[in-house]
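Reminder to self: tokens first, then the designed residues, so the page reads top to bottom the way the pipeline ran.
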């Protein structure tokens, strides 16, 4: 089992959700986050004063999948989230040792 974690631009969330749904992935977790990478933030003008915004709003999408689906999930997220501009985000894949569905007690792949 793998945990696929993607940091993407907020306006790409619906496209990523649709792409994962087409793969048959039923559940995902979404968290609003802030951060920066090579983009390094930007400057904004508010009430006539210019200030630097170091941390940009992003969305973190996490989905647990079986080993055979992980590469397809990464490809789907990459295709749906790509704009070709700096700041498109990153995808990380982690191993999952164990998963348990609390309601039924199912474990591992059955719990997904």
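Designed residues (112 positions):
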């Amino acid at each position: 089992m793998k945990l696929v974690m993607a940091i993407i631009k907020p306006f790409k969330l619906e496209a990523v959700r649709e792409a994962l749904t087409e793969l048959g992935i039923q559940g995902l977790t979404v968290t609003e986050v802030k951060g920066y990478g090579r983009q390094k933030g930007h400057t904004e003008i508010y009430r006539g004063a210019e200030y630097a915004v170091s941390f940009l709003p992003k969305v973190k999408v996490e989905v647990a999948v079986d080993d055979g689906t992980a590469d397809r999930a990464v490809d789907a997220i990459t295709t749906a989230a790509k704009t070709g501009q700096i700041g498109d985000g990153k995808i990380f894949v982690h191993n999952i040792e164990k998963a348990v569905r609390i309601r039924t007690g199912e474990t591992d792949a059955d719990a997904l």
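The chain has a mean pLDDT of 89.
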